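Consider a typical record:
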Amino acid sequence: MINLQNILESGHTFNDHELPLKFKFRLINTIMIIIVLTSILFVTLNYFGLAAIGDFHTKMNLLFAITNFIFILWLRHARERYDLIVFLMLLSAIINFTSALITIPNDEFRIMWFYITVFLAFFAGGLRYGYFTAIASITIILLANTFFDLNLSSLAITTAITGLFILTLTVRVYTQKMIDLENSLLALNDTLHSKVKAGIDDIRKKDEYMVQQARMAQMGEMIAMIAHQWRQPLASIATISANIQLDLALDKEIKKEALEHDLEAIVNRTALLSKTIDDFRNFYNTSNQKNKFDLENTIEQAIEILSPAIKHADVTVVFSSDLHTEIVSFESELIQVIMNIIKNAIDVLKTKEQSRKIHVRGYQDERSAYILIEDNGGGIDEKIIDRIFEPYFSTKKEKNGMGLGLYMSQLIINEHCKGKLTVHNSSLGAAFAIELPI
């Protein structure tokens, strides 16, 4: 199938600043295609005796067609040569129409071609090419009338010259207006482009600020969970240490086996505290660099970090996985999103009396990996489900909800990870689906 747009634009692409140039390419290619077809038509008609244009001008028309076909091909491979190709095309047109003016004295309308050439020169080449073509046309008509019998009356020649002069002045005015309009449009486009860029930069800064706000709020929750998870080991270490100190104060004999047992207990609980810090380390990692990681392990890590909150809320998290690939993305940000969704589900389930369950499933196809997080909390009110990803929209106002968690989560998945975060109500409750490119 012929791609007309590709032909008229010479196979090139044009940005928003090049729309006038795009129009000129379309115009000049259209004219050159018409020239090729028309010239071949005249050559064919003369061959069959249907148009008496003479052998010499027939050859000129054939050369004119071949030349313009070459110009069409040249323009496809040398976009930067547009001005030169337009000049050469106008020159070839003047030469061909001069041939018609001299060799076809029985054609009363042959001067008309000079009018068309002048008109084309102004719109395709601008003022400079328009003036050149008009002066060349007037000069050729005067010289040809002086040295050849054009079979035209003095009135016809005078009318032709006057008409060319009026046409030049008229088209020159409109061409100048087009140039001024083009410059105004380009200036307006630059202004709009600058404003749009500034607006986008401002939105990005606001997004980064809101993400940071949400991250700080979530960090506060994480610190609370660390404190909760540390409380029991620290209390146990304090109790063991106090017992040892009491025995020493009472000069009570401490058996080696008992001391080793107490020290081992302290070491084990200290290791548990260290593991907690390791679990939370990725959450605080603010690196903007992508890394390659096992998605199944990442999901398990997010669930493990939330284990204190999960146990405290008496929630059962069931994780199943058909994932068997690694992906390249922002692991720490993905952990943040998974934790945020599960934490929201926990908050909803706290208000329910029935068994509290969260199902987390990982699976994949050839192009994407998916994480489905579904709770049995009854779902989200259909009146607000389309708004939950909006910034500062929260159903937890009484709990000081900031309304940034889900907005931030969707921003991370859609913009940073180039994936998709969506939500729908299942038969059990709310189901959040994360799609990530493999």
Residues 4-152 form one domain. The radius of gyration is 41 Å. The chain has a mean pLDDT of 83. The chain is about 65% helix and 10% strand.
